Amino acid sequence: MSGFDAPVKAALWLCGLTLLGVAPALAGALERTEPGHQAPPQPGSSLPIAPPIVQYALPSQWMTIRSKEDWRKAGKFEKELSKDCAALRFNEIEPMRFRAYYKGEVLGVAFGHGLNLHDPGKKADRKKIYLFRNGDSTGCTVQSLDNQDPRVNPAGSQAGTPAAGGFKKY
């Protein structure tokens, strides 16, 4: 045995002793919080509703229409487009990205000029706004409204344009 083997063996033996001393310390670091750290909810109390678990952040959502009337009176029912919606040939790109609120009912919104609208058959009218009820199911219904924006529909209401004096000065 050479003189070099003894220091190597001594170093390995010292490292082994050191690792044996570190193992219990590491085991304590991996433990969870102590039992009873958080008290269980009281019986009969309502628990808060947790947000949905998703892999990516939800997109922002905009309320575009708010009305106190019933959604059935909002526009014209589109029978053929409703059939296409049920067959996924005419629907929203991102469901509920734009929303319409009608007397307790929330509907998805897409615009005929293409914003948030999946329309491979090119059946949409540029001057319309489409409301989708149950847009992600086979029971989808589509209603259409005239778009009052003068940039899209020149025949729409001109009262909201600055040239017609539709905006208030403060």
Features:
alpha+beta, about 170 residues, disordered C terminus, two-stranded antiparallel ribbon, about 20% strand
Helix-strand blueprint:
Blueprint: H1 5-29, E1 62-67, E2 76-77, H2 79-86, E3 91-92, E4 98-102, E5 105-111, E6 117-118, E7 128-133, E8 141-146
Parallel strand pairs: 1-4
Antiparallel strand pairs: 2-8, 3-6, 4-5, 5-7, 7-8
Gist of the model:
With 170 residues, the protein is of the alpha+beta class. The protein has two helices and eight strands. β4 and β5 (105-111) form a beta hairpin.
Distance between the termini: 98 Å
Oligomer: single chain
The biggest sheet amounts to: 6 strands, mixed
Q: Which sequence of SSEs, written as H and E, runs from N to C? A: HEEHEEEEEE
- Choose one word for the global shape: elongated
Indicate the percent of residues in helices.
10-25%
Question: Can you tell me the residue ranges where pLDDT is under 50 for at least 5 consecutive residues?
Answer: 160-170
Q: Determine the mean pLDDT.
A: 77
Structural class: alpha+beta
Percent in strands: 15-25%
Which value, in Å, is the CA radius of gyration? 32 Å
Total helices: the number is 2
Beta strands, count: 8
Strand order of the largest sheet: 1-4-5-7-8-2
